[in-house]
Amino acid sequence: MSQPISQPEQHSFQAEIQQLLSIVIHSLYTDREVFVRELVSNAADACEKLRFLQASGQSPTGVSDPSISITANEAESTLTIADTGIGMNRDELVQNLGTIAHSGTKSFLKALAEQQKPDTRLIGQFGVGFYSAFMVAKQVTVVTRSQAAGSEGWKWTSEGGNGYTLESAPDATPGTQITLSLKDEAKEFAQAGNLERIVKRYSNFVAFPLELDGKRVNTVQAIWARSKNEVKEEEYKEFYEYLAHDNEAPKYRLHFTADAPIAIQALLFVPSRSLEMPGMVRQESEVHLYCRKVLIDSKPKGLLPEWLRFVRGVVDSEDLPLNVSRERMQDSDLMRKLSKALTNRFLKHLAEEAEKDAAAYEGFYAEYHRFLKEGVLSDWENQAALAKLIRYESSATEVGKKTSLADYVKRMPEGQKDIYYLLAKDRAAAEASPYFEVFRARQFEVLFVDDPIDEFVMDRLREFESKTIMTAEKAELDVEDASKEGSLSEDEATALSGWLKLTLGESVHEVRASKRLVDSPVVALDSDKYMTSSMRRTLKSMGREAMTGDEAAPDLEINPRHPVIVKLNELRQNDAALAGLVAEQLNDQARLASGRLEDPRAMLQRMNMLLSRVVGA
Ligand code: ADP
Ligand code: MG
Known about the structure:
By secondary structure, this protein is α+β, with helices and mostly antiparallel strands. The chain contains 20 helices and 23 strands. It has a nine-stranded mixed sheet with strand order 1-6-5-4-7-3-2-8-9, with helices on one face. Residues 38, 41-42, 124, 129-130 line the site of magnesium ion.
């Protein structure tokens, strides 16, 4: 051990230090305020090291329960971060703070690794955090004394670039006090209010008591880092309230840890309500990213896919480098691994919850279905998992109840090949739709969807469990064994179809006899293979006309068994004018049912003319 000296000794930094300092100060960090995080993290590391030595019986001193305290002196523009952690002796000071890319923490870990597996949670690994102090300080003073028996106190002072002085500090207490004399342009860091905000932001979950001007700051525990069965319900509740500022219980909670391919401790919540209104400003994701309980980024981009922006929580990964700026974090490989692992786990959790408690899942779905559908449309990688999570009302469910695609497939009768859906404004409208008739007759289940976005969702999925998903409008199905009684003959139907095409002209593409109709006289069928007319309208309303192509006139199918059609065939021979009106009216009805009729005025006028004839006016 070195002898105490009375004269300050001048030391110069390593040769590269000036250059490295400038990198640290100017480009490694994007926010100046992270220096607080770095110094507090070092203090926490020092406390952790002491605790470890105590726990393994290696610390001779009786000091227990190390802690950290920050004091600010606004008048003098200084700031002190003190800890009663392990402290440093003279050699350690020179080693740890005199060599920029040397991490004392790393050597400590290495030394420990040679003895036994270290059970410490150490933050720093990179050996540059300390120097972030020079982003804001014109002078940094470190007074420290090792906790090892017989250690003496030392004082280290530096103004950055040139080097540092070292002198004996006989009055130093065990632990470390770091005082920053702030630059003029960084005076705000001596304001208590400012500091409190910063400390709460980055260091609220540090595992040792942390005081600011004598007041305890970190009162909420980092429960995500504890094992699930050690956390009480009450603690989860408190933590969630703190995190989400929501005093209603969350819909779901997922607390899990993983080791491979990346270390993760995560605690995720689905709030009771979605805070995002359809069509309003998009919410930002608020799953905070931590490394060993120290905040890296409160709104990390790319941690979760966009459509999961309703999730709240904390993700901690000790594999993340603390000293990396956020810009560089975003597209790192690590981030992708982290995102993938989290998303998979979360989707799995939703599927499990849906299985376990269908009613609760219904509640979740009612609140968040828009996000899941957005996921189907935007996140190809997770589409298959999402397909299992979507739910729709159907012709086989009770009113207001929804089914999964998997259950739909289980119910499919023999002879049904595909999965069908029908867009209508509500269930009653769907059931009254001419498109539904053939399904009712065949007892094929139809999913009732009521949001134009659902058509895009279905279109994007294309299939489920190898069954094609298609709109009922485009299903090529026949009503089997329909009675021929009172029906037009095939020739009559063909003749009437020809006449209708002549009468209706360009507004229909083709007219033919239908095998799918039961109760309705006519139905319009899209001649485009994929796009429906409502999809076209939706795209138009989004200003995406270019994607819709030209809307071809639909095919018109007539029901040769329907009395109106049967009579119309006679009428066209007896009263061509009246028959013409009826034909136009039927065409408009078909257009109305398919959502093509945008302006009903002409139809209403014609209707009045027809009514006049009926009442004999
Ligand atoms: P890192 O924390 O990544 O190791 P730093 O530049 O932040 O790098 O710190 C360098 C080293 O200085 C640390 O590893 C540690 O050995 C020592 N050190 C810094 N602050 C303290 C402190 N408050 N108490 C004890 N040692 C410290
Ligand atoms: Mg550090």
